[in-house]
Amino acid sequence: MTPEFFVSQLTSQLASQPSSQQSSEAVSQSGTAKPIDFEDTMGVINDHFHYVPTAFTNGVSDISVSNEAGQNEGSCKIFAFAQILQLSEEQTLRCFGRFYQDVINTPDGNDHANIRNFMRDGWKGIHFEGQALKRK
């Protein structure tokens, strides 16, 4: 699957699914399209991009997350992929699949800090110290 086809699937799924604040149970009961899996996102990235471990920060407040090169590589890849393809914040969050759903299900939790910070600060909080992805 090409990155562009992946984005078209993501866009059509967003149009057919409830908002991110509704439960995954409601999505599955409604008979709408299956949500994006984290592994599917990683597959598209790995198939079409060269990855270089890259440090990045996520957040604009005093609770920003600093990620060393090689740390939280899934988040690094997804944020870099989403920047290259100019995905919206909602499209980007959906690329995290079940991990995004975990955050939605536990709004007061402290796991998945990169997802939580991105939900709060969006693209204005993402800063890379280099280029993490390059098309093959």
Automatic annotation (TrEMBL):
Name the record gives this protein: HopJ type III effector protein
Species the sequence originates in: Neptunomonas qingdaonensis
Pfam families hit by this protein: HopJ (PF08888)
Highest taxon listed in the record's lineage: Bacteria
